[in-house]
Design brief:
Layout lengths: L5 H17 L2 H10 L7 H9 L18 H13 L6 H13 L3 H13 L4 E4 L13 E3 L2 E10 L6 E6 L2 E6 L4 E6 L7 E10 L1 E4 L1 H36 L1 E2 L2 E2 L4 H30 L4 H27 L10 H13 L4 H11 L3
Parallel strand pairs: 1-4
Antiparallel strand pairs: 2-3, 3-7, 4-5, 5-8, 6-7, 9-10
Length: 354
């Protein structure tokens, strides 16, 4: 586990308290049923902006706090525990692309708005059903053309950081940008975004694309960590109060073994995820390996825990009245975002020369 400083502990505890009080799973249910066009609650996003979380990885000169990715991961983890539908992850990573990019104009125009929560940004990279940085989108003469198949938080985004064959470009919502909502199992915002001669500003080359994709994968892994932790504890609480055959389920040794297996896997997951976030903050040369390790472990662990949650809840776990299915559906989507376990195991091997 990462050694947190006092500010990080305070940030984590504050995020946990806010998520439990202001954004519980019931809030996600209401949002899912209301199905707003943006895919998130503007009031909750405004509160996140006021608390400074949207600017955690943005430099102070642009209104952020520059707390780093480990701090961002702590907040995202707490939101993930309650399935909070927030564009924080997408906006923060898109902001990092602008920070790391070479456009001073983009920094001046967008970073203050992103740090305050006034605007939402997201990444538009993948063009198919699986994650890949090999894209066909083209940019020429400041105009960008192509289609991105799965853009998280794309419905409410004001700006898109788009992967093109020669690097990353920034495109504002407007002329030449068409957003088509996509319905997926998790009930969150996903969109197909078509760019047809949209005005674009280059941020950097393909190396920047890879660095930004790694940051996106690490932040998603932090959300998955929060989900796994919450699913485990909800399952444990259920087993402690559910009586079957005249005994509390938690007294059955076979179920104790299954819970112990999940707990050890979650602790391993925590070490890998926090290690990847620390590697990003430290600028380590093996950051890409740390991220692939974390995303691979996160995908396998959350799959295990979410499926065990449904099974151990029994028949009621299959109903919408209980939250188990919500965690299972979100887990299925996050598992493939930014590469599934097989993708990252293969990448880890290639990075190590195998």
């Amino acid at each position: 586990m990462a050694a947190l400083n006092d500010e990080q502990v305070m940030l984590r505890d504050m995020a946990r308290e806010w998520a439990d009080n202001e954004s519980p799973v019931t809030a996600f249910r209401k949002l899912r049923d209301a199905a707003p066009a943006t895919g998130f609650d503007p009031e909750a996003w405004g509160a996140i902006g006021q608390m400074g979380w949207a600017g955690i990885v943005i430099p102070e000169e642009f209104g952020g706090s520059a707390f780093g990715y480990l701090s961002l991961g702590l907040v995202v983890e707490q939101l993930g525990r309650n399935l909070a539908a927030s564009p924080l992850s997408s906006t923060a990573v898109a902001a990092s692309a602008i920070v790391m990019g070479g456009s001073d104009a983009a920094k001046q125009e967008w970073l203050p708005k992103l740090a305050s929560g006034e605007a939402v940004a997201t990444l538009a990279i993948d063009e198919g059903a699986t994650h890949s940085l090999d894209v066909e989108t083209k940019a020429e003469g400041g105009k960008l053309t192509g289609t991105k198949a799965f853009v998280a938080e794309g419905d409410g985004a004001d700006a898109f950081v788009v992967a093109v064959a020669d690097g990353l470009y920034l495109v504002a919502k407007g002329d030449g940008v068409t957003v088509s909502p996509r319905r997926m199992a998790d009930g969150r915002s996903h969109a197909e975004v078509c760019f047809d001669g949209a005005a674009a500003e280059k941020l950097g080359g393909t190396e920047l694309t890879a660095q930004v994709a790694d940051r996106a994968a690490a932040v998603i892994a932090a959300e998955m960590l929060g989900m796994a932790d919450a699913a485990f504890h909800q399952t444990l609480d259920y087993l402690k109060q559910r009586v079957q055959f005249g005994q509390v389920l938690s007294t059955f040794q076979a179920l104790q073994h299954r819970m112990a297996k999940m707990l050890t896997e979650i602790e391993l997951m925590r070490s890998a995820v926090e290690g990847a976030l620390e590697a990003i903050d430290a600028g380590r040369s093996d950051m890409d390996q740390a991220v692939s390790l974390a995303k691979a472990i996160a995908g396998e662990t959350l799959r295990l825990v979410s499926r065990e949650m449904v099974q151990l809840f029994g028949g009621v776990g299959m109903t919408d009245e209980y939250d188990a299915g919500l965690y299972l559906k979100r887990a299925a989507v996050l598992e493939v975002m930014w590469g599934n376990a097989a993708h990252h195991r293969d990448r880890f091997a290639r990075l190590n020369g195998y």
